[in-house]
Amino acid sequence: MEELGLVGDLAIVAVAAVFGGVAARLLRLPTIVGYLAAGIAIGPQTPGPSGDIEDVRLIADLGVALLMFTLGIEFSLREVRQYKWMALAGGVGVSVAMVVLGTIAGLALGLGTKPAIIAGMAVSVASSMVAFRLLEDHGLLGAPAGRLTIVTALVQDLAVIFMLTTIPAMSGDAEEVPGELALAIAKAGVLLVAVFVGGTWLLPKVMGRIATSRARELFLVAIVAMALGTAAISAELGLSIAFGAFLAGLLISESEYAHRTLTEVFPLREIFAVVFFVAIGMLIEPDAFRENLDIVLILTLVAVFGKIVLIGGVAAGLRYPLRTALPTAVALGSIGEFSFIIGEEALDEGIISADLADALLASVLLSIIIAPLLFAGHDRALEWARGAPGIGPILRPRTEVFVPEEPRLVNHAIIAGYNAVGHSLAAALARRGFRYAVIDEDPVVFRNLSRDGIPVVLGNPALPSILEQAGVETARVLAITLQDPGQVESVAATARQLNRRLDVIARANADESPDRLHLIGVARVVDPELEVSMQFVRHTLQRFGMTSQEVQALVNRLQQDRMRETGEERR
């Protein structure tokens, strides 16, 4: 396809990405692994069809810019403030510690000082994409582990911006590095001020005019122009493309156009991000696993197990239970997608050799393959740790209770899990003046609710002692909003043993039959997907003139049919 040029290269990349992504999903691996493998398959080092790596890398740069742009939009200062200690210790602290560990490992492997520092930077970055996908697949994204992972990953991604700013400064002589670093930081500060001053004055006027026009494509073009324009200015100043794109996203995040921008840009980002990963795969030298096996293995082990120990230790030190700390740490154990950018930047600046760059890329690939395997076994590791002599008592989570003696909790509701669903339920109960108590394993939730005077218990709601502290024996309703199916069953079974009259409502899981929950005494099983679809049915039918009673009768029949079909499929 040489005569087709860039179009032919993109066709090869797209076809290879489809096959690689499908194969990864069939093997229950992150699709990133499939894209990387696809890149290796069509790379110049392997036989068969191959794309022009320079053309593909050019397109991949767009993926980098859009990835950092959307990161800036999604960066939540509110989340960081709420979990500030995890952000500082788990995000900043662990990043610094991992840079030091990676540097020490690099020096032990015989690398020079600067290459060792680059290796430390690369292994310090976790893969946000892999972490979020692992938690989502296991129903933990809305749990405390998900909240901790999101905050830690966002702060670690932000640390990449600082690293990318310092890499060009490291390309000079050793004695010139402090001055070059100070100049790079000064340039970054000037760009930051210019973007925010110009954006504050110009953005509302320009985007307001464009947003009110009927030309949807004009809004998208303006957003992309802002992202790529700021990235280009950043590159001209000797900084990185990623830094400029992140600043543009951060500026948009504070405007009223943040959600619309994400909606418009997200499909583009996903497409170019796939090209980015395939391009990285094309750069991976398969011989790196053989020629630099010691570097690949040691850096991978330092990255994966170093982050698991450090992040898990930080979460445990902040009094999160092991069932929250361990999945958070394992999810963030892989080396991230931004490590590719760090390696490429250092290679372009002449700080590291092509062999070391190949070894870093191979380490990323290996860690991304290892991460899902470790995550799949974290439940068994939890059980072993709890039952191990001398370890179980140490790992037992500390509980705290804020339940005022007066007025006494009677005929109240218990909300197990203060996620988005639990928060909405609590707001509805409070609005109607009904009493309720909350059980959650997140110390931040406990601190916020107890400060507001709301009865709350910090601990695992599957434990009888925790349910008793929340007044389960005198409660009227228990709402289990948790997403982990195993924990939902445990909470329901324990609660019904303590109070046979208790009305239990629980959230269904796509992988389990509602019959199991009904058998242990759950009166109502809520299927989120079914409930959403019924809302669409209600609204649509009412617009066609059906009465509320007719609509409800039809909805009831549809729900019964859906539950019957679901039960038959699972049997």
Please summarize what this structure is.
This protein has 26 helices and seven strands.
Give a written overview of the molecule.
The chain has 571 residues and is mostly helical. It folds into two domains: 381 residues, Na+/H+ antiporter like fold; 127 residues, NAD(P)-binding Rossmann-like Domain (Rossmann fold), CATH 3.40.50. Helix content is 71%, strand content 5%. The chain is built from 26 helices and seven strands. The chain has a seven-stranded mixed β-sheet with strand order 1-4-3-2-5-6-7, sandwiched between helices. Strand 5, helix 23 and strand 6 form a beta-alpha-beta unit. Helix 3 runs parallel beside helix 11 and helix 14 packs antiparallel against helix 15. The two termini are 50 Å apart. The model has no long low-confidence stretch (mean pLDDT 79).
CATH topology of the largest domain: Na+/H+ antiporter like fold
Number of domains: 2
Name the poorly predicted regions.
none
Give the beta-strand count.
7
Distance between the termini: 50 Å
Biggest sheet overview: 7 strands, mixed
Helix content: over 70%
The number of distinct helices, counting runs of at least 4 residues, comes to 26
Biggest sheet strand line-up: 1-4-3-2-5-6-7
Silhouette: globular
Average pLDDT, rounded to a whole number, is 79
In the CATH scheme, the class of the largest domain would be: Mainly Alpha
The structural class is: mainly alpha
The CATH architecture classification of the largest domain is Up-down Bundle
Question: What portion of residues belong to β-strands?
Answer: under 5%
CA radius of gyration: 26 Å
